[in-house]
Amino acid sequence: MALNSVNTNMGAQVALQSLNRTNDALAVTQKRISTGYRVADAKDDGAAFAVAQSVRADIAGLTSANEQMGGVKGVLDTTMAGLTKVSETMSSIRGVLVKLADGTLSSDQRTQYTAQYNSLKDQVTNFLADATYNGRTLLSTATASGGGNIATVRNEKGTTYTLTAVDSANLTIATVPTDAAAAATALTGDFTTKMGAINTALNTFGGNSNYLDSQVSYNKEKMDALDTGVGALVDADLAKESAKLQALQIRQQLGTQALSIANQAPQSLLSLFR
């Protein structure tokens, strides 16, 4: 191949190829700086991008799980509040039952204490009925009215955790005792049974609440760990990219100058024809 040719300029071709490579590298660096990602899409690194998308899906799943558990926590907290008021009221009912079990009460006194008992009994019934959140309750097994067990997702895989509903009928005390003997029987029978059921429900739902709190906290920690992992996989080292950008910009300028010089080489052939 003739070196002195106006048809083929090897120097210009080499300079152009070098400049194109520099421009390509500069485009990559600029993309990383503008997006903050070393792997912004599948074109940058298909395998890394696929892994990152999978982890991001896990993070989205954990976020949704925590949101759902947050709603269930609303039901659970309402249930706990209602049961706590019921338990407090049952303490008052016990005091009234003890008085009603006293055979020395006058008829008027028994009437007064009976009315107090009925009032407290109605409060228990109302507390149990009002313990609803967004139309759901754990103090009823009637699904048609918003009761029944609640199965909530707890992780990104959709694994569920079930909260078992309690039938409020098992927590509601019987009608007022008619005499001292009936009141005494209620103290050791119906009242003790219902108080035990209330305490069991409080213990169970308290455990449920602690579990959900722990699960939400764990999910948050897991999301932080996953997010850190994704960052290590796809985030750009901006300090490194900044230094590379400056170097590439200089190479681009030199490459442009080199190409300009190479393009002027055929001009020297004109002197041969003067």
Automatic annotation (TrEMBL):
Gene3D superfamilies: f41 fragment of flagellin, N-terminal domain (1.20.1330.10). The keyword Cell wall biogenesis/degradation does not apply. Residues 6-141 form the Flagellin N-terminal domain. It comes from the Bacteria. The keyword Manganese does not apply. It is found in: Secreted; Bacterial flagellum. Residues 195-273 form the Flagellin C-terminal domain. Keywords: Bacterial flagellum, Cell projection, Cilium, Flagellum, Secreted. Flagellin is the subunit protein which polymerizes to form the filaments of bacterial flagella. PANTHER family: FLAGELLIN (PTHR42792). Belongs to the bacterial flagellin family. This is Flagellin.
